[in-house]
Design goal:
Layout: E1 3-12, E2 15-25, H1 28-32, E3 38-46, E4 51-55, E5 68-71, E6 74-75, E7 80-88, E8 91-100
Antiparallel strand pairs: 1-2, 2-5, 2-6, 3-4, 3-7, 7-8
Amino acid sequence: MGCFLTHSIDGSGKRITSQLAGVDCMGLAATFSKFCNWRIDFTYADTSNRTYKTARGKTHTECRRDPLRRNSAQTLPKYGKACARFYVNGKLRATQCHFITK
């Protein structure tokens, strides 16, 4: 199997009431995978795909099997998309996005 980035958003329209992103692993990967020096950023882009905000996460130096980050409630100024970006040792490893529409 392997590992994948999950990203969930609750809310309505431009209002986000909760946002969560993490890494889930299955099969042998769940037993042997650990992520060190990781962080999860949340980014927001308009309908022209221009990023207008990045909520950079803390870099975690400890090694974890299940990296996880929550973001606080907010109202976005624009429609477009919200993305979670997973970094390990400063390198982007995965991105998962949701479109925010009317």
